[in-house]
Amino acid sequence: PQPILRGLRVGDLGMVIARQSILYAEEYGWNADYEALIAGILAGFHQRFDPAREAGWIAEMDSRMVGSIFLVAGDSPGVAKLRLLYVEPDARGAGVGKMLVATCIERARQLGYQRLDLWTNSVLTAARSIYERAGFKLVDEAPHRSFGHDLVGQTWSLALVDQAV
Q1: Model confidence over 69-103: pLDDT tens digits?
Q2: Distance between CA 100 and CA 4 in Å, rounded?
Q3: Residue 89, Cβ neighbours under 10 Å: how many?
Q4: Residue 88 contacts residue 128 (beta carbons within 8 Å)
Q5: Which residues lie below 8 Å from residue 24, measured CB to CB, with a gap of 6+?
């Protein structure tokens, strides 16, 4: 089956929190601190949601959620954040992650953002590969202790407008 993307519906945020936290616990051994983090991110997204500046998508295959991504207004004008990309294990390799990231980038461009930033961890190699192929550049990394593990956090950035002078 081909993946399709749709907008958010009631219940999606809770499903994203549950699935992503369960997957990261199974795949990386992350503890419930990660679940609390993403629950807070998505609660804030919902409470401050501005459809003129933000969006969220659910990827489905055979009417089943297999991934998600969120475009969130950043802290500075002209800057948005790509948040919480995830793809179910059985949907990996079907282009779901690439489709989600491309859709997020395109919407950020349509909304007039000049830059799209994201924060991830170095252990999330498949996601990092998708970001790199989409043109994101690694701009910062630092070790941290989170989710019960020593990790290396990374900030990636994508210029959405030509920087020509």
Answers
A1: 999 999 999 999 999 999 999 999 999 999 999 99
A2: 10
A3: 10
A4: no
A5: 30, 34, 147
163 pLDDT band (50/70/90 cuts)?
Answer: low
* Count of positions (residues) in the chain: 165
Torsion of CA 52, 104, 1, 129, to 10 degrees: -170
Q: Whole-angstrom Cα distance, residue 162 to residue 104?
A: 18
Tokens 């990309």, located at residue: 85
pLDDT tens by residue, 19-37: 999 999 999 999 999 999 9
What strands lie across the sheet with 137-146, from one edge to the other?
A: 4-6, 55-61, 64-73, 79-87, 115-121, 149-159, 137-146
**Strand 115-121 to 149-159 pairing:** antiparallel
| Whole-prediction pTM | 0.94
Tokens of 89: 């294990």
